[in-house]
Amino acid sequence: MNVSGTSAQKYDRAAFRPTYGFWADFIHPTAMAEGALYHTLNTYDRARFTFTFLQYAAHVPNGDFVVFLRTLLQLPAAAEYFPDLKLEQGRICKIDTGGLVPLESSSSTDLLMDYFNPSPTEVEDTEVIQAARLIHWAQNDVAHRDAQIKVGIDHFQSKMKTYAKWYPTLNGAPPEICLMIADIHHQGRAKVSTVLLALQGANPLIELLKIGQSQYAERIATLNKEIKALTADGTFGSLKYDAASNAFI
What we know:
This protein is mainly alpha-helical. The chain has one domain (7-248). It has helices at 13-20, 22-26, 28-33, 64-72, 78-81, 110-116, 125-140, 142-166, 175-187, 192-199, 204-210, 217-232; strands spanning 41-42, 50-51, 56-57, 85-88, 91-96, 99-102, 241-242, 247-248. It has a 3-stranded antiparallel beta sheet with strand order 1-2-3, with helices on one face. The protein is globular, with a radius of gyration of 19 Å.
């Protein structure tokens, strides 16, 4: 794990609001729940390798970590940090003596996980080196940090379109309801059926905050705290989600 750092190494929604508008605020509670540090790292769970202020996970094909790494490999510093990786036809490939070896596809990231963390049972030199590369890059290149933000906001924006189809009542819903659903699915702590049931309650926000409470009490307390802060400072105001434009208006 690498979950400690300074405030300068942590996501600041105000710094990105000029570029991304309210979406910079929308991802804030989840960022805080995920550690918010640009070098946040863990290699101990089923994802095998999780990185960034929103903890992008390497085990999901075409998921946030894969999209993020593809983005990194297009930056000027990519050849310095990962000289053995290359994008080929939109896929992350390893440069080998026999040619390019794809590390991910639409159905698997097994080889990509092996590249970053060969085994979940011990900490190998490979795992340490790959982690150190990403941490150093994040701490020393603003382009890396900007890529984290762009991928994260693009991901949440895209997912909101999906959630609006799953949960029609999100059209016209306040931001706190939407971001709770986004966080639940980002972490993967509940199925659609569970969320649908919560939305039918007299107080949907309270019901959504109850999901996973016994297992993730600290995370949910953080979300609740940040939602209250964003409400108190007027960030949420009278905004409502508009499914047609995929925006809060």
